[in-house]
Each structure stands twice: as structure tokens, then as C-alpha cells.
């Protein structure tokens, strides 16, 4: 078993060293936005929107484009308001730009959900509901405008699914928008993630429904591509459910592992392959699969550690110590590098 794990990691390390295929230059997009070069922004978005996505485009350039200039959830209201002003200037300068209407819809949804907070419905304040509903209304206006200009952008339909989440739409209406998005770009993976969010029990799904969704969509692809889609959906659920998600859901660690291996091996861009390897290690740890976690670390380059997963100060040696301690707790066998 140990030998097969090393063979696996060798494959992953080779994929980690391969160049990406035409991955978006975020700094270039940011520069266009900061310098108010709206025509160039629209041309860039048009080019990315016209790309035909393959099954291995787990993150697409059009997806990255829309996220490139947004403030973070930790940024102040002043920064978010300045961002809205720039978007409004873009809209005035380019009133037939589908990209700016999508960006504005994203802004209003982010603003509304930010005001709502992450708590249960009974924990949301009256002001929180008011701001969410205002954000939903503003987003819907922009999405209608975007569809009139160019209905062939899959991000439009992901955002409709986000509206559905906030507004509590019925499942048949959600399915209509989901299918419309899939018809535009089958392999625009954010669509799958948005539907998975809606199907979580904390929102509008029944227990086990999001797992069935992952199983069904993976079965349509089959093989390792199906496993990869399963993993993409599972990691989205994990981002909501937290580190105990393998205990609180019916997602399979074995299939998640196979899927993350497929993502790390086959993704069209280098950053997604590296993300797949990091996620493989992370989920191996929370699954208690210390053999797989050790095999990754024994052959890994510390430059590939993802700070979004591990934090900026984590090192390979820190992770080795964590695994050694966890193994000791599980087996009672003292790590070799520890004194009696």
C-alpha cells in the first residue's frame, strides 16, 4: 500500500510542475480596472466568455475575471462603496456591457448576504433582512439587463441560483436556471457549487439530497472525471460544513480522494492542480488517513503549500509533527523523533 501511495504522489508532483494553459493574469485585469480602461475590460471578458470549457476546466478564466477586482469580505464598507462607484462609472461608459451588469449583480448579492450574516434565519436582524432583500432586488435588475445583452454567459445563471438561495425559490424554479446555465457551459463548475449550496439542509435541501446530487452528476461523466466532479462538489460542501463534514454528511472519503487525485492530475491550469494536492492532504488529515497524508508530505515541495488552506506560517515540518502526533493518538505508538 505504501508503494502505491508513493507512485500516486509521483504523478501529482509531475502534474504540479507542468505549466498552466492560458490562465488569466489577475494583475493585468486589476490594472485595467484601476485605470478605468472599460473597453479593454469588456474585450477581455468577451474573450474569456467565448472560451469553450472542457471537463478539466475546474476553474475557468471567465470565473476568475469576475472575481479579480472584488473586495474581500474583510474589507471596510468604504472600500466596497468605492468599488460600487467604479462599477457604476463602468456602466455609464459602457451601457451595453454584459460584464459590468454581472459585476454589479455580484456586488449587490455580496452586499446583501454580508448584511444578512452567516447565522440561522432566526438570528438575522430586521436590518439584515432588509439589506438582503434590497440586494436581491438590485441584483435581479442587473441580471435581467445582462440577459438582454448576452444570455450566453454562464455566470448569469450561477447568480440566479444565488438569488434563489436568498429569496427561497422553489426547487423547480432553481432547476430551470441550473439547466439553462448548464446548456450554456456544461463545465462551468460554479453552477454545480451554487446548486449544491441550495441543496444543503441548512438552506432548502433534505438530509442526503446534496450527496445524491453529487452522485447523480458524477455518474453522468463516469470514471475519474466523474470522481473529480464529485470532489469539486464535496469540497464546496466542506467549506460550509467545516472540518467535521465527513462526519456530518454522507460524502465518501475514498471517492473524494480519487476525485482530488484526478483534479490534481488533469486540471488545465497549474494553480488548480496545486489546489487539488493541498486539498488531498487537508482532507486526508481530517479523514484520519495518515498513510496518504504522510505519502504526500514525504515527496512534497513546501513551495506548493496553499496559504488559504494552511495559513501563511505553516511549514512541511509542522504538518509532519501534526501527523506524527495524530498517529500516536490513534495507534498508541510514539513517533520516532520523540524521546521516551
Key features?
single chain; 340 residues; mainly alpha; Serine Threonine Protein Phosphatase 5, Tetratricopeptide repeat; 2 domains; 70% helix
Report on the architecture of this protein:
This protein is mostly helical and 340 residues long. The protein folds into 2 domains: 1-20 and 199-302, no CATH class; 21-185, Serine Threonine Protein Phosphatase 5, Tetratricopeptide repeat. Helix content is 70%, strand content 0%. The protein contains 18 helices and no strands. It has helices at 2-17, 26-34, 38-49, 61-67, 77-93, 98-116, 126-149, 154-167, 171-184, 190-198, 209-221, 223-241, 245-248, 253-266, 270-287, 290-298, 307-310, 316-331. Helix 1 (2-17) packs parallel to helix 14 and helix 14 (253-266) packs antiparallel against helix 15 (270-287). The radius of gyration is 21 Å and the shape is globular. The model has no long low-confidence stretch (mean pLDDT 89).
Query: Which stretches are low in confidence, meaning pLDDT under 50 for 5 or more residues running?
Result: none
Please report the total strand number as a whole number.
Answer: 0
The assigned structural class equals mainly alpha
Rounded to an integer in angstroms, the radius of gyration calculated over CA atoms is 21 Å
Strand content: under 5%
Please summarize what this structure is:
The protein has helices at residues 2-17, 26-34, 38-49, 61-67, 77-93, 98-116, 126-149, 154-167, 171-184, 190-198, 209-221, 223-241, 245-248, 253-266, 270-287, 290-298, 307-310, 316-331. The chain is mainly alpha-helical and 340 residues long. The protein folds into two domains: 1-20 and 199-302, no CATH class; 21-185, Serine Threonine Protein Phosphatase 5, Tetratricopeptide repeat (Alpha Horseshoe).
Amino acid at each position: 500500500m505504501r508503494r502505491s501511495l508513493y507512485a500516486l504522489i509521483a504523478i501529482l508532483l509531475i502534474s504540479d510542475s507542468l505549466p498552466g494553459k492560458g490562465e488569466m493574469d489577475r494583475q493585468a485585469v486589476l490594472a485595467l480596472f484601476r485605470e478605468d480602461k472599460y473597453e479593454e475590460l469588456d474585450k477581455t471578458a468577451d474573450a474569456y466568455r467565448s472560451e469553450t470549457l472542457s471537463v478539466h476546466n475546474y476553474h475557468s478564466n471567465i470565473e476568475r475575471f469576475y472575481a479579480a477586482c472584488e473586495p474581500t469580505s474583510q474589507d471596510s464598507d468604504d472600500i466596497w462603496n468605492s468599488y460600487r462607484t467604479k462599477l457604476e462609472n463602468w456602466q455609464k461608459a459602457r451601457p451595453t456591457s454584459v460584464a459590468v451588469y454581472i459585476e454589479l449583480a455580484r456586488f449587490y448579492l455580496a452586499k446583501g448576504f454580508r448584511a444578512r450574516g452567516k447565522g440561522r434565519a432566526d438570528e438575522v436582524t430586521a436590518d439584515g433582512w432588509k439589506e438582503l432583500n434590497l440586494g436581491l432586488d438590485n441584483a435581479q435588475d442587473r441580471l435581467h439587463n445582462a440577459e438582454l445583452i448576452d444570455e450566453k454567459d454562464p455566470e448569469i445563471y450561477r447568480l440566479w441560483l444565488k438569488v434563489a438561495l436568498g429569496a427561497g425559490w422553489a426547487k423547480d424554479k432553481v432547476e430551470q436556471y441550473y439547466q439553462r446555465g448548464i446548456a450554456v457551459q456544461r463545465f462551468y463548475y460554479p453552477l454545480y457549487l451554487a446548486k449544491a449550496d441550495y441543496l444543503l439542509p441548512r438552506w432548502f435541501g433534505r438530509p442526503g439530497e446534496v450527496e445524491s446530487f453529487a452522485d447523480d452528476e458524477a455518474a453522468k461523466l463516469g470514471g475519474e472525471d466523474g470522481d473529480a466532479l464529485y470532489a469539486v462538489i464535496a469540497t464546496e460542501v466542506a467549506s460550509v460544513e467545516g472540518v467535521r463534514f465527513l462526519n456530518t454528511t454522507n460524502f465518501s472519503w475514498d471517492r473524494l480522494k480519487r476525485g482530488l487525485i484526478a483534479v490534481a492530475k488533469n486540471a488545465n491550469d497549474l494553480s488548480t492542480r496545486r489546489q487539488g494536492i493541498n486539498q488531498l492532504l487537508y482532507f486526508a488529515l481530517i479523514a484520519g488517513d495518515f498513510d496518504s497524508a504522510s505519502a504526500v508530505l514525504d515527496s512534497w515541495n513546501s513551495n506548493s503549500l496553499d496559504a488559504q488552506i494552511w495559513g501563511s506560517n505553516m511549514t512541511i515540518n509542522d504538518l509532519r509533527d501534526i501527523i506524527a502526533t495524530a498517529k500516536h493518538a490513534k495507534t498508541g505508538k510514539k513517533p520516532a523523533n520523540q524521546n521516551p
